Amino acid sequence: MKFIHVSDTHLGIRPFKLVEREFDFYRAFSKMIDDALNCDFVIHSGDLFDRGRPSIQTIIFTIEQLKRLKEKGIPFFAIPGSHDISVEGAFISVLDKIGLLKNLASKRYHKQNGDKILINGEKFGEVYICGLAGIRGRIHETYRRIIANPNGSYNIFLFHHIVSSIKDANVFSDIPMSLLPKGFDYYGGGHWHSHEILNYGNGKVVYPGSIEFTELSEYDESKKKGYCIVEDGKIKFVETNTRPIRVVELNCTSMSASEVTKKCCELIPDEKDAIFVIKLKGRLRKGVKGEIDRNLINEVSKQKGLLFTKIYLSELQNPINSNYIEVKKKSLSEIEEEYLLKQNYSREIIDAAKEIIRILGSELSGNELELAKKKVISILEGLK
Fold this sequence. Notes:
By secondary structure, this protein is of the alpha/beta class. It is built from 10 helices and 21 strands.
């Protein structure tokens, strides 16, 4: 028995608003289908699409790829993830209806029995497969209500939630692993975008992760993207490698803004069509973050043939010095006056402007208002 487990393909996503990145996800998915043509079946544990209503282009691509499997008689079992579900339902229900996949979370597999949810599945030879959609509300309660009866020689449960046993999940976890139904050999997990394998009873909880980097926080060269090929119980992780991703961290402590700009330009790799992410950390010695010349860095990146360069500034701090402390102690009026003096306005004009603002900001009526108008005219005439 040989099958592919894939998840979080997010077809249709466009990271950094780059059409090239959208097609990276298509290429990764197509590579997976290439390998699936030599397997018995495919399981997908949620977020086939990036949104509940995918674009026409995304739909056409997906249909073309799934047809390749159908023509070879290779079934594609799936559950909808949190991104697949819209107000109108999940588009994978349409793909299910036309026979390109089997949506194991559809109503025909789930039956209400009092306060319990009876989950049935599909048999493929001696393999039994069932699953639960990536619901986001009342998750714990739903898992406690599940009754699943694995009845194959090899049993698979698909789900789209993060178990708390994942070390790095922290606040992102949805459920304790103990809430997963008992008695399955393989628990195909989704929603967690990193590759993880955990033991649970006599089975394995497996997250293949996403097939590509979706968010900036994920960009890390040490975190590989891909899917799993499972053959006779042995799990092999296959990388997609659609585009070179280079991530560098630069400690900017004791550096000036101009020195940071120069160093960033030096770190840009000579790698055509690559994505370069540079994470700036520490505290600047001189200048502020806004003075880092991102235009120059991007220009050097283009000259070297990179597709995209992202400069990550959120962890970089501006310097602490007396000038900044003094500004905090000054009133808004004092700061404005200093600015106007630096712009070479005369003291006479600044004082006149301040007086006009004071008059216009007063609540006046009747004779007082008329007198104020005359005063403003007098001030303006005095400046001629």
